[in-house]
Amino acid sequence: MNTIPLVSEAQRERQLRRSDSALPELWTLLDSVTDPEIPVVSLWDLGVLQDIKKDGERLLVEITPTYSGCPAMVEMASEIEKTLTAAGYTNVEVVSLLTPTWTTDFMSTQGREKLREYGIAPPAPKAQGKKIACPQCGSTDSELISEFGSTACKALYRCGDCLEPFDYFKCI
Amino acid sequence: MRPLVSQPLIDYCIAQGDDALIFGQRMTEWCYSAPFLEEDLALANVALDLIGRAQMFYQYAAELADDGRSADDIAFLRDARSYTNLLINELPRGDFAFSMARFLLVDTFNVLYLEQLVNSSDSRIAAIAAKAIKESRYHLRRSRDWVVRLGDGTEESHQRMQKGLEEVWGYHKELFIETAGERELIASGVAVDREALYSTWSKQIDTVLAEATLQRPEDGWKVVGGRDGIHTEHLGHMLSEMQYLQRSYPGVEW
């Protein structure tokens, strides 16, 4: 069955900010900055990168933290600065926003696919109560082992078919 | 001249931060000591959420006070008497059952409280609450599961769960006590009326305890004083460890 991929309202707004941006080359440049814990997913795909603005000579990069205490946030901000500095932009400020509150709805379709290929089951927004599909074999015969996986954003599952344990990126 | 910032608002943010930081720091003591690996990770992650929450409140307090102190200064350069966290957050970690009993009481409260705090008239506080509520809902799901699993488990797990509950019970009263400053903030729609949450909290706890086949302890005793800086003997010891680095090497960074 073919399904039409749906994009959340929040995600659509983010996409518009990117497509309407006067600084497209910077968005492309920052596509190289990834989550230090999940190196296949860019900050854009993860939904952390919200906006890039110019304030006079200064570049403002707005990000939304995933979890309140996520230790990767500091690393992400410093990677953004490094990448822009290396490209010749020396006057850069990374601003951490509390609003909009980060949600897994911000994650791009491409980001979800990359997560799955990497072996992490992507967040399943409308699947509350539904079984999580194993990223290795696709089976939905899975069970929760622990509400928390290796990081705050993941939970630990086990596949009943291929018997492999796997991380599930929690939907929040 | 900068506009006058109300002292109760600064105190409130610091108290909220203290509650989260002290509880979070206490729970990091489970690192490498939890019953099994997954639980070790879970407790560390919950602790991180709480410490992150503290950081957000302290950051706001530091901006409001604008007295040269950073969020880190607020966390690391105060003595026990200046901390205004509720006592339930500072009690030693105890055994796993005690920790889960405490989590249940606090998580249940936090979810009810944050559900209303997201409508705070202070937009920054509302934004912090919007972030925190997602995490607290998740914490509660887990602590509720554990209390039921241990309470309705083996004879030993049941006994230890009941004992943990009895030991922490007298500390829950403080969750519902308001300071004078807090009442001002409730009147202006910034803070949430804690007292009004009691009956819902109580019912929700009863539901979980019934499912867990646990007895609700008697309300015969209570311990209060945290908001006034009157603490148990445990907080000072915890701070001496938590603040060691900043006290020994002032201003050190990495």
Automatic annotation (TrEMBL), chain A:
<protein>
    <submittedName>
        <fullName>Phenylacetate-CoA oxygenase subunit PaaJ</fullName>
    </submittedName>
</protein>
<dbReference type="InterPro" id="IPR002744">
    <property type="entry name" value="MIP18-like"/>
</dbReference>
<dbReference type="Pfam" id="PF01883">
    <property type="entry name" value="FeS_assembly_P"/>
</dbReference>
<dbReference type="InterPro" id="IPR052339">
    <property type="entry name" value="Fe-S_Maturation_MIP18"/>
</dbReference>
<dbReference type="InterPro" id="IPR056572">
    <property type="entry name" value="Zn_ribbon_PaaD"/>
</dbReference>
<dbReference type="InterPro" id="IPR034904">
    <property type="entry name" value="FSCA_dom_sf"/>
</dbReference>
<feature type="domain" description="PaaD zinc beta ribbon">
    <location>
        <begin position="126"/>
        <end position="170"/>
    </location>
</feature>
<dbReference type="InterPro" id="IPR011883">
    <property type="entry name" value="PaaD-like"/>
</dbReference>
<dbReference type="Pfam" id="PF23451">
    <property type="entry name" value="Zn_ribbon_PaaD"/>
</dbReference>
<feature type="domain" description="MIP18 family-like">
    <location>
        <begin position="26"/>
        <end position="93"/>
    </location>
</feature>
UniProtKB/TrEMBL annotation, chain B:
<dbReference type="InterPro" id="IPR052703">
    <property type="entry name" value="Aromatic_CoA_ox/epox"/>
</dbReference>
<protein>
    <submittedName>
        <fullName>Phenylacetate-CoA oxygenase subunit PaaI</fullName>
    </submittedName>
</protein>
<dbReference type="InterPro" id="IPR011882">
    <property type="entry name" value="PaaC"/>
</dbReference>
<dbReference type="GO" id="GO:0010124">
    <property type="term" value="P:phenylacetate catabolic process"/>
</dbReference>
<dbReference type="Pfam" id="PF05138">
    <property type="entry name" value="PaaA_PaaC"/>
</dbReference>
<dbReference type="InterPro" id="IPR009078">
    <property type="entry name" value="Ferritin-like_SF"/>
</dbReference>
<dbReference type="InterPro" id="IPR012347">
    <property type="entry name" value="Ferritin-like"/>
</dbReference>
<dbReference type="GO" id="GO:0005829">
    <property type="term" value="C:cytosol"/>
</dbReference>
<dbReference type="InterPro" id="IPR007814">
    <property type="entry name" value="PaaA_PaaC"/>
</dbReference>
